[in-house]
Every structure is written in structure tokens, then in C-alpha cells.
Amino acid sequence: PARIANISKDVTVNEGSNVNLMCQAVGRPDASIIWKYHSPRGMQKFVTEGQHLELTAITKEQSGSYECIASNDISSPDVRIVQVTVNYPPFISKARGTGTRVGQKGILQCEASAVPRADFEWYKEDRRLFNGLNGVKIENQGKQSMLVFFNVSEQDYGNYTCVAMNTMGMTNASIILYGPGAIHDVNGAAAATRCSSYLFSSVILLQLLKF
User: Fold this and answer.
1) CB atoms within 10 A of CB 190
2) pLDDT digits over 173-184, tens only?
3) How many domains does the chain have?
4) In what order do the strands lie in the sheet with 119-124?
5) CATH number of the domain that 34 lies in?
6) Quick check: is 27 in a domain?
7) Taking Cα atoms as reference points, which of 105, 124, 112 lies closest to residue 176?
8) pLDDT of residue 188 exceeding 70
9) How far apart are CA 178 and CA 148, in angstroms?
């Protein structure tokens, strides 16, 4: 029967690296080898035939399990798996502001995908916020971070920055806590500033047309 005699160990690499996997098998008659890929989401597909599997400039989407299958039609195939983990910098997939009345509870949400898992920091303007100080609580759950205001005051309204970072890099997103009367778009960002920008641009254009 076919038997896998040697196979690459599990590997962790940075996005953009080249990965070479090896799977050697013995048997009479000679064993044939194929590789299959299994994604973390359950998708699987055939990759290639032969002892060697080369992944050039690997992306985070190629992270997952690579299955080596050795067979020679004598008995059941021998199957072994190599786990490939791809490190990549954070990207923020969700940044949600909220409209909250004074005296009520408000929550700003920030979600970031990253390997290794991202650490989060929150800022208002240039001032970093810390858990338990100034009436706010920072709750981190997996890839999500929430900035919780237990008793919103007028001074709490404004622009906040969520920073997500790991050993591969960092990114940030702007999130707004606004009052119930503020005009806001679907992403929770106050639109009043945007309207002011349009008005300012219109004034400049009118001035130019006079010349």
C-alpha cells in the first residue's frame, strides 16, 4: 500500500512570502500524490499533483490546510495535512458610530481582521482613552473592540479614532459619537461637516466665476 514517509511541518509565514511544501510517499506500485486545499471557511479544491507544492507570494486567502493524498489503488489512500498560517496586517472591516442622547448609554464599535490578532487603542483627538477612566469602558472580544459610554454627556460627542495593530502593521478608522439631532450617513459619520465642505467649495467656485 501507499504510505507517506515524509511531509513538511506546519508553517507560519508573512503575507507575500513564498511557501514550498513537500510530501514523499513509498509503495508498490509507486504511489501517486495529489494536493488538496481546505480553507478555514470549509471550501476545498484540488491544487496540484506531485511531491512538491509551491505557493508564490502567498496571500491571506491562501491560509488553511493543505492535504497530501498518496495512493496506488492497492488500498485506501494515506492522507496527511500541513497547516499553513499567513500573518497579515490589520484591516478594519467595520467602524460603526452611534447617535445617543445625553444621559444614555452609547457604544462605538470597531472590528479588524488580522493575524496575529489585532490589539486595539482608542483616541479622542490626540488623547488616548483608557479602560475605566472618564466614564468609558473598552471591551475587546476577539476581532472586535467596543468603546462604551455609560452616561453620555455633551463633552463626549465628537470624533473618535480606533487604532488596530499587530506585528505586521497598523491601521485606524474615524468613528463619531453624535447627538440625536445630528444628520449622519449610513456609516455613522456626521454629515454636517460634509455639507459645510460642499458650501465652502460652492463659495470658492462662485468667487472664481466673477473673474
Assistant:
1) 20
2) 999 999 876 654
3) 2
4) 98-99, 169-178, 158-166, 119-124, 127-129
5) 2.60.40.10
6) yes
7) 124
8) no
9) 14
